[in-house]
Amino acid sequence: MFLLTAACAAQAQAPFVLGGVTAAPGTRASGELKVPAGPGDEGTVIPVSVINGPKPGPVLALIAGTHGVEYPPVLALQRLRTSIDARTLTGTVVLVHVANMPSFLARTIYYGPKDGQNLNRVFPGKPSGTLSERIAFVLTRDVIDRATHVIDIHCGDGNEWLRPYSYWVVTSAPAVVAASKDLALAFGLDHIVIDTERPSDPAASVYLANTAMTRGKPALTAESGGWSRTDEESIARVERGVAGVLRHLGMRADGPRPVATPVWLGRNEVLRSRFTGLLYPMVEPGQTVAQGTIVARVTDFHGTVLEEIRSPFAGEILYVVATPPVTKGEPVGFVAERAAAGADIR
Q1: Considering the domain boundaries, does residue 345 fall inside one?
Q2: What's the pLDDT tens digit per position in 22-69?
Q3: Per-residue pLDDT tens for 281-322?
Q4: Does 177 lie in the same domain as 31?
Q5: Which residues form the domain of 291?
Q6: How far apart are CA 210 and CA 172, in angstroms?
Q7: DSSP state of 81
Q8: Which of 21, 197, 199, 227 could crosslink 31 through cysteines, CB 3.0-4.6 Å?
């Protein structure tokens, strides 16, 4: 009897503590992670929820709001907070409702309003750095380092018109790359970009999902929605994706099956403007273009054409900036070509 009791105790789920939030087995709890004040700013908070099942298993971190004007992921996590049943869950789900609160409240695209930095370019962050670097540090220490799997959920920023897709990063350890591929398939978006250019140094991981992968944790970046919209389709697509991942990881019995026939995308390029002015997109997301197709025109503020930005190769447009302002060096669109052997990369 003693041995049986000891074995059951060893398999029991423990309370999950995240910052000041404690979720007992079979319950959910919500609160905030605190980002301390620094020179010139008062710090910030990161709202989080923990859904802790009664049985041990994976720790899945779902992160929304890395960029401030990407709304469908934020709204999807609000729904998932209550729709994921803690009483029947195996393992733990950590929800980061808004990773970048300063940008969210200020409605700024790409960059934080306090320091002008892109949060998704400063990982793993610094404990005494800029506000964005301190946010990245807290997310790395308190969320990524505690998780077994990470999904950074994005959409087109407030200026971007986007078709749904995800990134599969292949620059990490082979086992992590393979598990991340399975994660991408389980999330269910049928267009998957094979990303071969992420850094491999954990101390200079740059991107949120890549920070997890350089630490041996399967991860995924998903894109659903854009253009400051809060449409039901984009929100529901995130919910379905998470449901597929929960099933795949054995955290829940039900859920969608992995995408059966994904479109693998290899060579890809973010197209950028060489000028500041007015942007006129000439294509739409999901459109197939030939090499040399005009993706966008940029004019000065009197209407004179400054440049025509053309696709450097044949491929599919994944997003295009669809609002008039454009600044030198900023994106105007993203094009990728199909990879015939994408499914064979491990």
Answers
A1: no
A2: 999 999 999 999 999 998 899 999 999 999 999 999 999 999 999 999
A3: 999 999 999 999 999 999 999 999 999 999 999 999 999 999
A4: yes
A5: 269-339
A6: 9
A7: H
A8: 21
